[in-house]
Design a protein that fits this description.
eight-stranded antiparallel sheet, alpha+beta, single chain, globular, disordered N terminus, 29% helix
Length: 158
Amino acid sequence: MAAVMICVAFTACSSVGKEEEKEVNTTAVPTEAAKVKETEAIHFIESAYTKEELGLAQVDKNYSFMVASNGVEIDGKNYIKVVANVIVRNDVTTEDGKETFSMETKGEYYISFDGKEVLMKNMENGKFVKLENRYDSFKDEESTQTSADTTAENTTEG
């Protein structure tokens, strides 16, 4: 019986990987206070998670990551939004016969302003999945890489 209670307590406490409905406020949120933003947010999502973890393994076209210029509020907490998009040719052409293109979102990822939570939106049902937070190990790798680059520069200059 105790083992069952421990298991139940453990699963109740763990929300990583569990889909949840969350309230999203569409009002733009300035990102100055965000710990992770702009290209660092893209680099974090792109390098800290695999294509499978990001739900992109089945995407058969080249995709690229983009970061929204404004933050998003989800359940009262502010996040940076990173999206994975593919460029799609439209059936419509311009008046002068040129092809037109649009972007199709294949994945949406949200990094909390404090860097402590990462969410992925399920593109089929709109629910959010909490991803394992790898921000601290990402920052450690970044600083190790920067130190190695600086050491290499100093060695070659000298």
